[in-house]
Amino acid sequence: MHLHILGICGTFMGSLALLARDLGHTVTGSDANVYPPMSTQLENAGITLMQGYDRSHLQPHPDLVIVGNAMKRGIDAIEYMLNEGLAYISGPQFLADYVLQGKHVLGVAGTHGKTTTTTMLAWVLDQAGLNPGFLIGGVPLGFSESARLGGGQYFCVEADEYDSAFFDKRSKFVHYHPKTAILNNLEFDHADIFDDLAAIQKQFHHLVRTIPSEGRIIAPITETHIDEVLEQGCWTPIVRTSLEAHPQAVLSAEQLSADGSHFKVLENGILKGEVKWNMTGQHSVANALATIAAAEHVGVAIETACEALSNFGGVKRRMELLGTVKGIEVYDDFAHHPTAIETTLDGARKRLGERKLWAIIEPRSNTMRMGSHKDGLAHSARLADEVIWYQPEGLDWDLQPVIDAASNKAIIVHTLDEILHQIVTEAGEGDAVVIMSNGGFGGLHQKLIAALKA
């Protein structure tokens, strides 16, 4: 078939495009925001990309249009698709119908850590020789691509709670029917489609209803919002994890370093393995425990999983070191939520010690642009020595109250040139600069490295 994907450069849709290509389909796609790393990955895969959403992109008619959840009524290609009566489907439904049928699906859900944990899980299963398929909402460093069909019975998928399409407002993960499900954490997010936390919990319970009684749910012992979901009804055994010894936790960690880079793994209090890796932060340890529990459900020994995680390379844009110029380290991080900002900076602070830590933050996610989390932003960035908040055009609220509430040094800038000037003139050898955005940030990352070199 000829498949045309509307919104192809989104992290999910781009990964789906790779799977569709590997199934033997001809794949083309349109997007308004064609930028790396996804655009590079797709072009390298031989997939034709078109800028914008013009009806001409659907001429001649493809056999099937896969519609991304960013698409809305009124977009030229969408109106043409509907008026012409073209066959169309949501991305999650295509994945369920064409890829996941007959597979043992391992789904990773939660507000934070989905991409990294899905990558960890695919990596562990791969290192154990299970040749899993996977779809990851990002570009993993340990694999050549963000999605593959795999050769075995297992498929690891990032199970997102965001809606499926303009014509299907259910969460994506309702389509996947996982047999092994990680529920990492749960906070209010996606204010553009959810009214409150209860609305998200309702979708999570819809997911729980689809997990078979012979399956497994993995959840931390400390997540009360997940507990409230499970109390609505659960028909599946639950394995609990904990960052420290806890009587109700099956898997727990014994921390050997404050920054989360070295820890022991215990099952019911008995030492089973040890992880020493390049990841940092307590959230990374929590992700590792969930990964190990999920892998054990499909027969991977804890010791084997620990060995694999000790060689785990991470994910692009998750505290990814882009370069060190004149002793200044430049990192890229996807942080889309105050909790993500806080946990990332906590891990960085524990690793850096007394070295100076800069945070450059673009509040770009839909929820942050709407101001839903603005009261927590100053606190979330408190562990950085200096914070540069970028106020882009079109932000629905003023960042000044965030500056006023800051306990550390914080400024607002309105242009990338101001950011470059600030870092180039004030950062020094031994400093670390973390750029935090869930978008391309106008190419700031490479511009900063170039400016520091100059």
TrEMBL record:
The keyword Cell division applies. It catalyses: UDP-N-acetyl-alpha-D-muramate + L-alanyl-gamma-D-glutamyl-meso-2,6-diaminopimelate + ATP = UDP-N-acetyl-alpha-D-muramoyl-L-alanyl-gamma-D-glutamyl-meso-2,6-diaminopimelate + ADP + phosphate + H(+). Residues 108-295 form the Mur ligase central domain. Gene3D superfamilies: Mur ligase, C-terminal domain (3.90.190.20), Mur-like, catalytic domain (3.40.1190.10), NAD(P)-binding Rossmann-like Domain (3.40.50.720). Its EC number is 6.3.2.45. ATP binds at G110, T111, H112, G113, K114, T115, T116. Residues 2-99 form the Mur ligase N-terminal catalytic domain. Keywords: ATP-binding, Cell cycle, Cell division, Cell shape, Cell wall biogenesis/degradation, Ligase, Magnesium, Nucleotide-binding, Peptidoglycan synthesis. Its cofactor is Mg(2+). GO terms for molecular function: UDP-N-acetylmuramate-L-alanyl-gamma-D-glutamyl-meso-2,6-diaminoheptanedioate ligase activity. Residues 317-439 form the Mur ligase C-terminal domain. Pathway: Cell wall biogenesis; peptidoglycan recycling. Pfam families: Mur_ligase, Mur_ligase_C, Mur_ligase_M. Reutilizes the intact tripeptide L-alanyl-gamma-D-glutamyl-meso-diaminopimelate by linking it to UDP-N-acetylmuramate. Belongs to the MurCDEF family. Mpl subfamily. This is UDP-N-acetylmuramate--L-alanyl-gamma-D-glutamyl-meso-2,6-diaminoheptandioate ligase. It comes from Acinetobacter albensis. The gene is mpl.
